[in-house]
Task: structure prediction
Amino acid sequence: MPLPHTEKCANCPALDDENCLANQGVKLSSYRPGQKGTIFQICGDPDFRRRMMEMGFVRGTEVMVVKYAPLSDPIEFIVKGYHLTLRRDQASDILMSEPGQAA
Amino acid sequence: MRRTLTVALSGNPNAGKTTIFNAITGARQHVGNWPGVTVEKKEGTTTYNGQKIHVVDLPGTYSLTAYSLEEIIARKFIVESPPDVVIDVVDASNLERNLYLAVQLLEMGAKVVIALNMIDVAQGRGIKIDVPKLSELLGVPVVSTNGKKGIGLDELLQTAIAASDAPQDDYRKRSFIRYGAEVEEELEIIEGSLAASSVNLDGLSSRWVALKLVEGDTEITERLSAKGGLDGLFKQAEASRAHLTDIFEDTPEIILTDARYGFISGAMKRSVHLEATDRVHLSQTIDTVLTNRLLGPVILLSVLYLVYMFTFQGSEPLVKLFEAGFKSLGNLVENALPEGLFRSLLVSGVIHGVGGVLGFTPLIAFMFLAIAILEDTGYMARIAFMLDRVLRGFGLHGASMLALMVSGGLAGGCAVPGIMATRTMKEPKERLVTILVAPLMNCGAKLPVYALLIGAFFPDKKAQIMFLLTFVSWGMALLAAKVIRATVLSGPSAPFVLELPPYRVPTAKGLLIHTWERTWMYIKKAGTVILAVSIVLWAMMTFPSLSPEAAKPFDEKVATLTADFLKDPAVRQVLPSEEALGEFERFRERLTRGTEPEFGANSPLFGELALVVDSQSAGLSPESTGKKPRPEIVQAAEAYQAFRTAKSTVESEKQMAHLRNTIGGRIGIWLERVTGPLGFDWRTNVALVGGFVAKEVVVATLGTAYSLGEVDTHQSEGLSERLRHEPGWTPLLAFTLIMFVMLYNPCFTTLVVIRRESGKWRWTVFAMVYTTVFAYLVALLVHTVGSILRIGVA
Result:
């Protein structure tokens, strides 16, 4: 289910609120451990977007949530065969094409 | 004879680059710093088939976009002093992401040889790589290697040497990635504009420069604008960027990154075969336990505790051996040299000072070994993963964890490399606060102080107290961070991107090299800075000597005592004159040192007296020696004991008067006004002043202060033994001192690094002032509360 998006992000390639991509995807942070899906878009500031893409978070790539840290944050993912951790609020900048599916 | 080849090793973190570097260069390594920055630069040499090869280990990076300092360094090296060949170490089990860096290197026009490392791990995961195909698709040689087992290294070197002979243009022409018509068009225009401006590119490929301009790379833009007269080029680059952004509805750098991954996944599809395996990786299985929500934190604490047990219990025999070694060295010098200033300098200044620090070398080495194991197995990253949420609450960052760990989060680090480790942090505020609190951690230099005081006052609870100190130091650092982040450095937190590398069994060689490098840094510091400081402090505590007038009362007292002693009738039978007394004292001294005393006719008599004196001081009856000594000898011995005690007291008083009179003593006494409420006396103050230079000096200075004040040098006990018996020293005072040492002023070297890393004197001064005020307040609290509740005062 696409989540409603209220704040406008200055760095998003979409030019207005109506086309905001955040309204069209599912936040990766909504995935439960063991769920996976494919990347639709990365939001956030340009440096972060680029770094994430360099680390392999490119459109169409499959991401699986492995687990949440003991204090529920950060989150561990498998992407392109390796393990990476991101904080919850960063994971919410990564938009997925579909709601999490059981792996 | 061919010239020496320069080969740069590049690769992702955790790709096994260091293992390959160690395997190639062995012990022929040199560790230094990259020019102008404090990131470690490792170089080594090797010879293959008569060809000398100079190997430079570039920092491990995921990319070359100048995101972090490591990336800037790696890129600068390749751009500014192009190596003959770049060996890119690629983790075969994580090929896709690793190839991203390889592609960037290729685009730079470097002569790349790919070392396909850890192919065994890949195979275990059902990843089959067609090596010749991959090599063909990338257009560069690919060699399978196993750094751990040393497989493929000969072939790797051979390939690198062959690659160095290949013409550069061959590499340049293979422009592997076509970015699609729109991008290529803009690249062509910029390349044309570059050619038209006839700017000197210093050997850089014009396609790469064009790519960087399209990406809006600040490094390259600055480099070119320094050359001047390129306004047209920059205008064109801006126009191209705007045009591409318009077409793709996203920034060009994102489009190019996407395209590179597209190219990589194309190459992967044609050269990599993935066998379906249901098997979950071993690492992940291990992590279901080690980073488990409930078990994880428990195991984390246990691991930290084990590290202490290992460091302290494990190193104990060696530490004792070292201490004994320095003690006998001191005795040796003492016997060999005549009494005087020079002997005092050597024994009290150099041997006690430096020895006090070097004696802890085994402990430091054990701790570094433990840290190396945590790092090389991959557990360190899990620690950061589990604790990030906690750290963030204090305005810190997951990467702060590493910096704080290195600074001494596991007791035994050093704030200098710790502060340098903050360079991976991009967010300036979090980085700065990490730099500012890093010196509060329990670094290796504080350990000797702790070890000394804990050994003296908490001998039964060594590990427990150390464990407690770790928590206290974390607590203090976090508290300080929270306060600083809420006041001087407020603002939101930065992203946290951390890889959890697969667990690996570390190699013995890697661990030893790691441990040795860090331990050697410690020894070097002891040999240079601390040697110099020890001598200066010795001088401060030796000069000026006591004036004859001031010394007179003490000398007179000793003379009276001696005269009274010799008047004793029993004594007169054995020691008829002052000369005979002197002779007897020398006799005893030689006896204690184990040298055969030769005093002619007097020997049997002296021997008998000495025997009785010694058995008396040991609390035994004279009869226990087997012989029944004559009563007058027993009487004389008793009188001698009383005389010795009285004389020692006077001589101690004289020494104290001397020490108080010296420069160091005066400074220490002056400081008593400030440190009085903490219970520190002037000798401790002198030691703490010495600690401004390096914390180890605190031990060294205490050693010097108490060895100077000592009378019976040949009956010397360890410093901790001496402190325990020193009046005024209580467990509470020891703990107060520990807290003060933990928190006060960062050492000289750290301050230099803080200045360099923060770029401002302002922060350096801030670090000095806030730590010392903080230390004072905490120590005051500990001492006051302890005194009121009467904890540890007996």
